[in-house]
Amino acid sequence: MTARIHIGISEYQLAEPPAVLVTYGLGSCLAIALYDPARRLGTMAHTLLPTIRVVAASTRPAKYVDAAIDLMLGELTARGSDRRRLVAKIFGGANMFEPLLGGGSENSVGTRNIRSAREALATVGIPLVAEDVGGNFGRTVEFDLTSGTILVRAVRGREGEMTF
Amino acid sequence: MSIAPLSPGQLDALKEISNIGMGHAATALSQLIGETVYLRVPRVTLTDISRVPELLGGAETVVAGITLQILGAARGNILLIFPRASAQQLLARLLHSQEEELLLSELGASTIKEVGNILASAYLNAMGSLLHLTLIPSVPQLACDMAGAVVDFVLIELSQTGELALMVETEFHGTDPRQETIKGHFFLLPDPASLHLILDAVGEC
Predict the structure, then answer these.
(1) pLDDT tens for residues B120-147?
(2) What does the alpha-carbon distance between residue B52 and residue B1 come to, in Å, rounded to a whole number?
(3) How far apart are CA B69 and CA B118, in angstroms?
(4) Considering only CB atoms, which chain B residues are within 8 Å of A112?
(5) Helices A65-78 and A109-124: angle between axes, nearest 10 degrees
(6) Does A99 touch chain B if contact means CB atoms closer than 8 Å?
(7) Cα angle B182-B186-B187, degrees, rounded to a multiple of 5
(8) d(Cα A89, Cα A112) in Å, to the nearest integer?
(9) How far does chain A reach from its first CA to its final CA, in angstroms?
(10) CB–CB of A109 and B156 under 8 A?
(11) Pairing of strands A41-47, A12-15
(12) CA-CA distance, A44 to A151, in Å (whole number)?
């Protein structure tokens, strides 16, 4: 039987085949997946906020996009992954509601989460090889460590499943 | 400011306020749909933010979620969650329509938002006059999607100050035996600072 490992809000998990990492119902939240294809070792986080504030050092760094990336990268390299082999994929960051006061969605938390992830990945030099972000619908993400592929399920806006 | 554990007295006070608020909201709803609406005893839950989607029936369950911000003396959010079938049932009765997927129509979406508005206003009015606070609901917003996705922006707001969410939940349902039951959940999620304000106001009652 395949082990399905559930990742809750502000959490991250590290796994290898045959496990499948799953996180449900992402709206503005962002799922970040890092994968080492050679060792088939991967990790995924369910983040809420774009950047960690130094003043409020949280007990749960995986709540923040930038801190989660550092944390996951550290875990992978500690397990012997070569960071030059790693690839990243990001999902979510939707804007579920129209902004109340009109205007665009450039500064919604979903959009800021996406921007923060792209910047943080560029800083650590991990290529972002796939993404399915934005829009106004929720996503469920399943990361299959055996193949390294990620299945995204939506029920609104774009129904059905897509693989990344 | 983060949310500290509450005393049994404070929990009771919150339940009572919610009961009164929801009583008014239920009256409004029952007038709308023309049948008695029953309420469960409110439940106050202080929980880790990550568990909220589970408490709403599972992060992936498709729901119609109406959210309103509370503006005025105290701040927070109101969430009104209808299971998909109940939202459809409610709309079918209000609009006298047999069409399917009413929620997806413009009329259906605007009707259910108005229901949210009426319920939230009734709730906040009752609570506000009891506590001598001015509480105003914002324009309602609707999303029909996975419960986790519908509520995560509320959780994002809360997560900036801590890891805990306080939810006051009231379940309500219709009773007409000839028709399918309409069920819904009403959640009050006060901001940590406003929770103290509410509790202080209760203390003075």
Answers:
(1) 998 898 888 888 888 999 999 998 899 9
(2) 20
(3) 14
(4) none
(5) 40
(6) no
(7) 155
(8) 16
(9) 23
(10) yes
(11) antiparallel
(12) 13
Our CA-based measurement puts residue A82 at a distance from the nearest CA of chain B, in whole angstroms, of 32
* Per-residue b or e along A5-28, where b marks 16 or more CB atoms closer than 10 Å to that residue's CB: eebbbbbbbbbeeebbbbbbbbbb
Q: How far is B33 from chain A (nearest CA, A)?
A: 27
* ipTM given for this complex: 0.85
Note the pLDDT tens digit of each residue in A127-154: 999 999 999 899 999 999 999 999 999 9
SS3 label, residue A67:
helix
Whats the size of chain A, residue-wise?
A: 164
Report the amino acid identity of residue B76: G
Q: Does residue B90 contact residue B202 with C-beta atoms inside 8 Å?
A: no
Q: Measured in whole angstroms, how far is the alpha carbon of residue A61 from the centre of its chain? A: 14
- Chain A CB contacts of B153 under 8 Å are 27-28, 96-97, 109-110
Amino acid letter, A104? G
From its phi and psi, is residue B76 left (phi > 0), alpha (psi between -120 and 50) or beta? Answer: left
Q: Do residues A71 and A11 lie in contact, with contact meaning Cβ atoms separated by under 8 Å?
A: no
CB contact under 8 A, A155 and B62: yes
Which residue reads 């809000």 in tokens? A9
